[in-house]
Amino acid sequence: MAQLLGRIKEFLGRIPLLAYLLGFLAATGVEIVAGQAFGLLIGLGGVPAFFGVTAALSRLNMDGGLGGLLLSIPSMLLYIVPALVYDVVIYGLPTLLVGRVLAKPVRWFTSTLPEWLTGLVHMVTLFLSMWVWGGLVGYRLLVVMYIGVNIIMASSLNLINGYMGEFSCGHAGFMAVGAYVSSLLTVWLFTQDDVFGAPVLGAGWSIILFPLILIVGGIAAGIAGLLVAFPSFKTRGDYLAIVTISVNFIIKSAIENIEKIGGPRGFMGMKGVLRTMTSVINVPWLLIWTFIGVLITLVVIHNFVSSTKGKGVVAIREDEIAAELMSVNTRHTKVLAFTISSFFAGVAGGLFAHVLGYINPSTFTIFKSTEALVMVYLGGMGSLTGSVLSAGIFTVAMEALRPLEVWKKVLVWLMLILLMMYRREGIMGGKELTDFISLERLGLRRPAKEVKGYAPAAD
Amino acid sequence: MAFFFQQLLNAVQLGSIYALIALGYTLVYGVLLLINFAHGDIFMAGAFIGYFVATFLVGHGVGWPWGFILTLLFSMAFTAMLGVGIERVAYRPLRTAPRLSVVVTALGVGLLLEHITLGALGASRRNLPPLLPETWKQPVEISILGENLNFTWLKVLIIVISLLLMIILQIIVRRTKAGMAMRAISYDKFAVPLMGVPVDRIIALTFILGSSLAAAAGVMYAVQYPVIEPYMGLLVGWQAFIAAVVGGIGDIRGAMVGGFILGFVQIFVVALGQFPALSFLSSTYRDLVAYALLLIILVVRPTGIFGVARRQKV
């Protein structure tokens, strides 16, 4: 058994990342061609939106009390078997097959071409597979974009909670600032709206200005982040947690009290902005910007924590007083960390508002903040790849578990508590994914050339 | 002047409910140095338990005054069990863990309680069955110093019960051996177990005291404002938490004073909005003002009014 597992592991390990991505792309092609027919053939009634998980769970009868729930379990199991067959045949086999076939050429490709080019090819392939896979069922595209938003949220919160070791629990407040500022701007500039009247600028501008407006939203959120940054000089630990929570409440309450932007009723019209954008050039703009936003967030945060300034952030986590003695300007570092973190939360908010098309102050409560916390702790504090992974898992799980209604939330909080009790370091345990699988093995970095004539020193 | 006294009475009544809940936060913080974020939801659970007990009692023909007294006592007892259970299951395994993990757990436990209630009982608002004679809720007019003042006996009852509970708490903490142990643990939690103080039992007692006070507050809140819903812990519990911090978390007098201060601030924010010059102050500003107050206190004097700064040793 162990031997078999070892062989499977070796087989999977030999395929580089790009080959997997191309394999998945091929699998989505198979799904487009044969998914519907195959789904009907094995009794799924079409293409399952989420590998069949959502559809299987929606077989559960949540309204009939415990008896009804237990009685509906067999019908769920009856659905799971064909769904598994579907997943293996449509996704699993093509991915592995194409991946295995392409492994050699891809290895050659990644080991000869410059790294920036292979990186770009990875990104484009990933984007294409998301687009094609999501395009088949409209709902998937939405979830893919939610994953993107959540990745930005989780990794930016990780900067504070993971790298700096402070406990920020009001991330949704900054998200709200970004969401409101950017959607007010886009709706004012590009659409016919009841509040703002006719569009101010022509439709063509919307394509150019949209990313800039997201950045403006982020800057506004970053300024709001100062509300937390300044108190953090004097207060630490649980008291800072209270500060962040109260900032979250204050922002929410302030938005609720501004009648002009809808107050507690919320604000909408962002779908019109998207229509304006697609009327100029018809590509999935929001998916593109979410994708780019995620990339920029990850690169910036990764580079920040590896920089000299950013090492100060980790030093503050380990021991603030010692860090200060070692000439880390703690105030400056804290302001910087909080501003960067809330900037990206604001960008995530802007994207979120446009994905959803409608925002409401009560979207951005402490529940939303706590969801971001769950993602950070699930992925592991101080691990960016962990945050990416957990944001993906968490978002898909949340969508897949939708049929469970309120109990879904119960599962989330239960998971948080169990995590804190049994695995405080999260999935990745403070390590990055690249600590387990090297970049060379993934095909993201060219293997170092062996220098001939030197034998490694024997210990 | 009549207006002022009128609002003062409202403020004292609201403040006494806040103070009761705030005491729970402060007691646990004093002993465990843990901000028990689940406490607001324990208050909610207390109100729901009170609702079920009251429905049972009224259904069996138990009326005033025994119906009310028994509801209060049973709710306090059951909620105390819940509080101790939470401590046993969720907090005790984490006693040696980093503090932030415990805070996250507490937050998770609170949200868990909220959503379990939501899932099991639904989001609909419930009303407590009539435990008090109807006349107690009717406004009574009296005249003090030539000013006419409206009050209800219910408000007086709430204030009296709250003050009574606070006095009992003071006696337990100041005059009994267990209370002395509680104060000792909050003074030095390393030396005290060596002196033979049963720490686990004292912590359980702390949770019993805090939870039962929250349950009493829950029942009285449910009688005064007849809405019980799963999110009331979020709405009222957090306000009480602000009260605890404003007074200086960890300090019992602080929790009481903080509760009354917050009650005053909130009532007067709403009340002053009745004047034309201040008409921009609508009732929706209540939370904004409360949280802004919290933020200012935390920046200016993080230890609150009565709190003493714990010195960090290097």
* Chain-averaged pLDDT of chain B: 85
Distance between the termini of chain B: 54 Å
Strand order of the largest sheet of chain B: 1-2
Low-confidence stretches of chain B: none
Question: What is the β-strand count of chain B?
Answer: 2
Described by its quaternary structure, the protein is: heterodimer
Uncertain residue segments of chain A = none
How many alpha or pi helices of chain B?
11
Q: What is the count of helical runs of chain A?
A: 19
What is the string of SSEs of chain B from the N terminus onward?
A: HHHHEEHHHHHHH
Kindly name the structural category of chain B: mainly alpha
List keywords for this structure.
heterodimer, A: 459 residues, two-stranded antiparallel ribbon, 73% helix, B: mainly alpha, 2 strands
Write a compact overview of the structure shown.
The complex is a heterodimer of chains A (459) and B (314). By secondary structure, chain A is mostly helical.
Could you give the topology of this structure?
The complex is a heterodimer of chains A (459) and B (314).
Chain A: H1 2-14, H2 17-41, H3 53-57, H4 65-71, H5 73-112, H6 115-136, H7 138-163, H8 171-190, H9 203-229, H10 237-256, E1 267-268, H11 270-280, H12 285-306, H13 308-318, H14 320-325, H15 330-356, E2 358-359, H16 366-379, H17 384-400, H18 406-422, H19 439-442
Antiparallel strand pairs in A: 1-2
Chain B: H1 2-32, H2 39-59, H3 66-91, H4 99-121, E1 140-144, E2 147-151, H5 153-175, H6 177-187, H7 191-194, H8 199-224, H9 232-247, H10 252-272, H11 285-300
Antiparallel strand pairs in B: 1-2
Helix pairs in contact in B: 1-5, 1-6, 1-8, 1-9, 1-10, 2-3, 2-4, 2-8, 2-9, 3-8, 5-6, 5-8, 6-8, 9-10, 9-11, 10-11
